[in-house]
Amino acid sequence: MASIKVEKSSEEKETITFTVHVTEGDAQTTHTVEVDRSYYEKLTDARITAEELVEKSFMFLLKREPKEAILRRFNLTKISYYFPEYEKEIKNYF
């Protein structure tokens, strides 16, 4: 099972940026994820924090692909481009 650590790296008016470390055994990957505030609100209705949304999004991704296959830098909206079921299914994670 992978360990996911999410840290806020910057916060702008419209976007929050996070650094995500995914560790499995001795191997680790690092990712930079941007979250548009409007997209965060759309997905969560503010029921969870943006940090929790990013963590749950990585749980979603890791069920579908290895950590090495996850983009190193992306906006959270990109997930639904690769996995159209993301927006519907992510709500099952909280």
Low-confidence stretches: none
Number of helices: 4
- Provide the helix percentage: 25-40%
User: Which geometry do the CA atoms define?
Assistant: globular
Number of discrete domains:
1
Please provide a written account of the structure.
The protein is 31% helix and 34% strand. It is α+β, with helices and mostly antiparallel strands and 94 residues long. The chain has one domain (3-93). A four-stranded mixed β-sheet has the order 1-2-3-4. The relative contact order is 0.20. The mean pLDDT is 96.
Topology (elements, then pairings):
Blueprint: E1 3-11, E2 15-24, E3 27-36, H1 37-44, H2 50-62, E4 73-75, H3 79-82, H4 86-89
Parallel strand pairs: 3-4
Antiparallel strand pairs: 1-2, 2-3
Compact overview of the structure:
The protein has 94 residues and is of the alpha+beta class. Helices cover 31% and strands 34% of the residues. It has helices at 37-44, 50-62, 79-82, 86-89, and strands spanning 3-11, 15-24, 27-36, 73-75.
Features:
94 residues, alpha+beta, four-stranded mixed sheet
